[in-house]
């Protein structure tokens, strides 16, 4: 399978990873944190590859019971965190990104914060930021840090999303999985590796809730102070002809009751 698409600024070519390579082996083992949430796992499953957990393998840690305090920016009325969403203006007249990062900056002050930078989500200059790359697995030199600020968006290019959707792949679910696993990995770079308490800041509440379900059952979740007054501006959805007619009849009925 190969998809080809031209846009005004680029040519996009997407090739298919040939899963027949697995047929050369009796068994193939993947040793990876969160493999069941990975694109490779879900793409292979959709393509008919049988994947099951190895019951002989017992991970050292299945849940982190350390103290984790989570703060979120936007409630679950906000969609998946994306570059498109964080550039939009909200009820305060600022972008969603600026409102969120400013709220985090006020809360953490000058304390040392671990984050990953992606898609232009720069933090306020007042913050004491330590950056790591988005794929930060295996970076174990940040165990002295106890604050993580999440803000990077990891959505794929629209052309790649379209090519996957055309194959019936659940892109929205996979993007949420990607967001979850990258958040998990950066949290595991910190003091929690040695049993320490940490704070984690997330742009949307659902990310913290998914982290709680995945590995952090004791996480305490609350909204960042001040963010309850910041409301994303929802795009108006055009009514269908039937909905417009129904709304018109209801308005006429109400006017008749009032004698107008």
Secondary-structure blueprint of this entry?
Layout: E1 2-6, E2 11-15, H1 39-46, E3 68-74, H2 83-86, H3 96-108, E4 112-116, E5 128-132, E6 147-149, H4 158-165, H5 171-187, E7 198-204, H6 205-214, E8 220-223, H7 241-257
Parallel strand pairs: 3-7, 3-8, 4-5, 6-7
Antiparallel strand pairs: 1-2
Structure overview:
The chain is α/β, with parallel strands linked by helices and 260 residues long. The strands form three sheets. A four-stranded parallel β-sheet has the order 6-7-3-8. It has seven helices and eight strands, in the order ββαβααβββααβαβα.
- Biggest sheet overview: 4 strands, parallel
Radius of gyration: 23 Å
Could you tell me the number of beta strands?
Answer: 8
Global geometry: globular
So how many helices?
7
Average pLDDT for all residues: 86
The end-to-end span amounts to 64 Å
Helix content: 25-40%
> Largest beta sheet: what is the strand line-up?
6-7-3-8
Q: Structural class of the helix and strand makeup?
A: alpha/beta
Binned strand content: 15-25%
Instruction: Give the oligomer, counting copies of the same chain as homo and different chains as hetero.
Output: single chain
Task: Point out poorly predicted stretches.
Answer: none
Compressed to H and E, one letter per element, the order equals EEHEHHEEEHHEHEH
Keywords:
alpha/beta; 7 helices; 4-stranded parallel sheet; two-stranded antiparallel ribbon; 260 residues; 8 strands
């Amino acid at each position: 399978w190969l998809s080809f698409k031209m846009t005004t600024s680029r040519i996009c070519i997407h090739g298919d990873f040939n899963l027949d390579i697995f047929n050369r082996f009796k068994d193939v083992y993947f040793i990876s944190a969160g493999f069941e949430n990975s694109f490779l796992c879900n793409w292979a499953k959709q393509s008919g590859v049988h994947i099951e957990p190895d019951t002989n393998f017992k991970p050292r840690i299945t849940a982190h019971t350390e103290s984790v305090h989570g703060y979120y920016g936007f409630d679950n009325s906000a969609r998946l965190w994306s570059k498109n969403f964080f550039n939009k203006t909200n009820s305060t007249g600022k972008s969603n990104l600026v409102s969120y990062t400013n709220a985090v900056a006020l809360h953490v002050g000058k304390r040392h914060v671990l984050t990953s930078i992606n898609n232009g989500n720069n933090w306020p200059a007042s913050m004491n930021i330590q950056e790591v790359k988005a794929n930060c697995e295996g970076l174990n030199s940040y165990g002295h840090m106890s604050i993580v600020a999440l803000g990077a968006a990891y959505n794929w290019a629209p052309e790649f999303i379209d090519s996957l959707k055309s194959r019936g792949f659940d892109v929205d679910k996979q993007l949420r999985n990607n967001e979850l696993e990258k958040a998990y990995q950066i949290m595991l770079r910190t003091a929690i590796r040695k049993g320490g308490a940490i704070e984690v800041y997330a742009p949307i509440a659902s990310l913290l809730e998914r982290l709680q379900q995945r590995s952090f059952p004791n996480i305490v979740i609350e909204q960042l102070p001040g963010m309850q007054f910041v409301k994303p501006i929802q795009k108006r959805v055009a009514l269908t002809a039937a909905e417009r007619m129904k709304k018109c009849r209801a308005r006429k009925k109400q006017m008749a009751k009032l004698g107008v």
